[in-house]
Predict the 3D structure of the following.
Amino acid sequence: MHTIDTKSTDIRTDLILDFEIKSNKILSHNGVSLYNSTKDKYNYSTITFIDCTDHNYLSNIETILINELKRYLKKNTKVLIVGLGNRKSTPDALGPKVLDNILVTRHLFSLGNVESNYSNVSILEPNVFGLTGISSIDLIKQVVSIVKPDYTILIDSLCTSNASRLNRTIQITDKGINPGSGVYNDRGELSEKTLNCKTIAIGVPTVIDIDELIKSKIIDKTKKIEIEDNLIVTPKEIDFIVDNLSYVIATSINKVLHTINRQDTINN
């Protein structure tokens, strides 16, 4: 048996640093809320919602996500979108599934003139080190050096330390991300500093470490819990959740980068 000490040190498990950043509620729109915060010149946004399996909620999430992404992205730019994670593992498949619905246009720009309402968009699915034998960090850096984007958007599944955020938040930051850091497998930093272009990370907490889950549920925080192994937990509906949220993220990015007929402005 493995002994878990529930007083273990806090770790960075998602894009929002639980105890270091105070978020301010910006707006609520039909059951979906937006929180913004800044730390060390970097921006953090968290969109919270109750349910991502209902069509009406999904529509409201998309509306707020589109408006918030406009703060981070400009149209008519060159963008590389990277889907981090493992397509064969559902909780880690958010990034690759987002790419399935991205409107790719870079090849059209290489062929000739493209209408002004479209951005130059390319995608990359680097997969995981355990399947390719190649560090995703190294692959991304090489592709960025070839494509030379104005923005690199990194999509990833996150490990949260707060059960209330599990599959109920979409998080955005322009600070970048450390892939794998939430599950003790940090492969290095992806940021404007390491990629030499503006870097935006978008993530959804799809799993929670059982250590953190236990700490959030027990009353006596000094108690030691006996469990068989270090486990990562995800909800049983994860397939449906990842499909819905990946589609919402992809369509929102498409509508921000390309002028597609839409009505997505919130009247505050």
About this structure: Residues 210 and 230 are 7 Å apart (CA to CA). Residues 238-257 form the longest helix (20 residues). The domain at 2-257 is CATH 3.40.50.1450 (Rossmann fold). Confidence is low (pLDDT under 50) at residues 1-13, 181-186, 261-268.
